[in-house]
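[Backbone geometry]
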Amino acid sequence: MPAPDELNAVICPRLKLEAPLWKLDTGSSGLTGYYRAAASSQNPALFIKVVEQARAAPLLAADPFARFADDQGVAAACLNSVYTKLINEDLFALAYPYCEARFASTDTNDLARLGLALSRLHQALAKAPFQASVQQNASERHALIGDTLKRLDTLDTRTLPQTAIELLRHAPVRYPETGWQAQIIHGDLNYGNVLFPIQHLDPPVFLDFEDTVLAWHSPLVDIAFVIERFILIHNQNDATAYAHAETLLRAYLSGFPTAPPAIEKGCLGKMLQSLSARALGLLVAITLDNNTVTQYEWDKFQFLYTQTRKRKELISKIEGLLRR
């Protein structure tokens, strides 16, 4: 739908764009949100995030990671610096090249393309010149979560979901040893952060490297995330889920000149549990810092944790694909 006249009047002159912009339906209110600028004689086609000024810094900090990956031949959404700028004292615009794209389908073709692209992303990020700073950031994030959970018995948690608190008293927060060397990874490969071009069979495009700044872990963290968000959630039939995981992982392993070592036994299930537990621990820290967390977020990560326990036999079988 067309963007509000108020927003066109504020943004288009500032960015020198031809009005009107089109607002993408994301449920956002006010002037913040996602917009599309059609190509014109003044500008290329753009995807524009309009955020509160305070939200801009982490998005700007993520761009060097996306740009490094893109320079290494991995398709990644990088900022267009010409159209990325402060709009006014409240709003900031971040502009990216716009392409017609879709989310992943549940067929094996997309999973094979994603697996191969992910292997190339990991190999690219392993070469990035930010390893030490990301390792330090990841250590600080882990300390924040760990310190918060150590204080559960002394904190006033009455305003928090008690089912989540009880889960966190026993859940593994530290990622397990995997047998793979830690490095920079993407860190947030949820379903919305990978797009597949519509017009051609180019590799999928990786978005939102915001968490990469904090993501110094075994590449298995990203793999577990993808298995969870692209396969387990969408396939309640275990045979289908296993076949899809096999397609993903075979493509991933094929992208390396030398096969990675076999992972440690039992670590995939533990990794999936840790992903959910760490997310819940972070929600606790965020809430105790007087920020709002929706009930949906609490429910989502409790569901994902429970799903891992219920499907442990399937997950163990999938793990076998990485232990051959």
Q: What stands out?
A: The chain has ten helices and ten strands.
